[in-house]
Amino acid sequence: MKLRTRTTILAYLFMAPALVMLVLFVFLPIAGSIPLVFYDYSMIGDVEFIGLDNFRRALSDGTFHIAIVNTITFVAVVPVIQLCSIALASLVNQKLKGIVFFRTLFYVPVITSMVAVSIIWSFLFDSHGIINTWLMEWGLANQPLGFVNSSKTAMICIMFITLWQGLGYYMMLYLAGLQSIPAEIEEAARTDGANALQVFFRIKVPMLKPYIWFCSLNSVISAVAIFDPIFVMTQGGPNNSTMVINYYSYIRAFKDFEFGYSATLGLVQAVITGLLSVVVFVYGKRNGGMTYDNAR
């Protein structure tokens, strides 16, 4: 047996446990849900084939239209979190005493359950929480502010929580990218008279393009699939201001028991995720962000 063949078999053996989990808990459920879009299926009634009626219903469902707009709006957090992550990675990429402690500190929210994070921020945003208490003590507010109880600020609060938790994850990826840049390139630029900003924007950022592409793609997928903070904090309210496709699909399935319609909403979400991912993918490819060699 050739060395290449043995290496390939060995690689698949190492991947086998993860592949089995993906097949059992991701691919098979997805394959099983697709036929449901053509049925009126619930656990409390008869199963009836209805063709494309679920899609027609989705087209005239006002709440679903709001959920689509809110989901796409939520993607606006992607460039903000990427810019903040790059800036933070640059700050912690310094050779300072105790810098490892700060890197760990910024990463702690990443390994914390999003449900736990949402509960903590619910207490902080509460009318009697620490944020409102400070604002009134400092004279910045005359009465408690309803951060997640107002349709004007609820989505912004959810975006902020997502930004706060995901910042450390992308920071570590960008930090790895910064540390992979050869020091000789930066030294040569400084020798030629480049200042710190010129080195950052003309050398480091272009060489981070593969990381920016990868992180942006992951961030877009995560943004479209947002669920936990909305489930814990707002339940899609107030007045559907935080209603997103993922949560609306959950309501239809597990509260109204309309599994066929829920599967249809999930399929639409998958299409939106795919389209946005293609946009990010094509943009990254056209701008030389797919490989490290193209970014140099």
UniProtKB/TrEMBL annotation:
GO CC, one annotated term: plasma membrane
Record SUPFAM superfamilies: MetI-like (SSF161098)
Transmembrane segments: 12-38, 64-92, 104-125, 211-233, 259-283
Places the protein is found: Cell membrane
PROSITE patterns linked: ABC_TM1
Similarity remark: Belongs to the binding-protein-dependent transport system permease family.
Protein name per its UniProtKB record: ABC transporter, permease protein
Originating organism: Actinomyces urogenitalis DSM 15434
Upper classification of the organism: Bacteria, Bacillati, Actinomycetota, Actinomycetes, Actinomycetales
